[in-house]
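Design job #97: recover the sequence.
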């Protein structure tokens, strides 16, 4: 189980890394409802590396605030790597950030389907240098557990994206 202390430790590490590299962050969240942004901003000094967070729970919000395409949502659904990618790119386009992450998934207890069961969460990470990564995870546990694992995955992915490419 991911606990608050672990999320805070990751947030500290991410903040330190972003500040050392002079990068600013934007987050686009759906099923986590701003939890990842809360973790990042819980760290003192985060204002020097955190630009903004977008909580886009509805499809309309994803379209209006992040520019996610209606065709993307109708063809792939809100919980898809395609939507997560467009959310991450939209977070960069509608901010002054250098790096972004997106989270869109089904935290439960309902809302799942045979193709996308509860616990299915899609992520996107984007860097202004052109790097874009997407992943889908299938987390176990209740709503809180799925959301905690989602926040951890998004923040850990940001740490990996900030690593120098020549390593």
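Job complete. Output follows.
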């Amino acid at each position: 189980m991911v606990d608050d202390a672990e999320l805070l430790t990751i947030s500290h590490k991410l903040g330190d890394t972003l500040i050392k590299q002079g990068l600013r962050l934007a987050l686009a969240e759906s099923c986590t409802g701003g939890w990842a942004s809360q973790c990042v901003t819980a760290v003192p000094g985060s204002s020097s590396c955190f630009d903004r967070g977008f909580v886009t729970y509805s499809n309309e919000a994803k379209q209006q605030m992040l520019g996610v395409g209606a065709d993307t949502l109708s063809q792939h659904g809100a919980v898809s790597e395609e939507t997560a990618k467009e959310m991450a790119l939209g977070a960069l386009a509608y901010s002054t950030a250098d790096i972004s992450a997106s989270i869109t998934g089904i935290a439960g207890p309902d809302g799942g389907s045979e193709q996308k069961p509860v616990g299915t969460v899609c992520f996107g990470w984007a860097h202004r240098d052109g790097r874009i990564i997407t992943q889908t995870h299938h987390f176990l546990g209740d709503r809180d557990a799925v959301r905690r694992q989602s926040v951890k995955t998004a923040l850990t992915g940001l740490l990996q994206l900030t690593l120098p490419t020549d390593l």
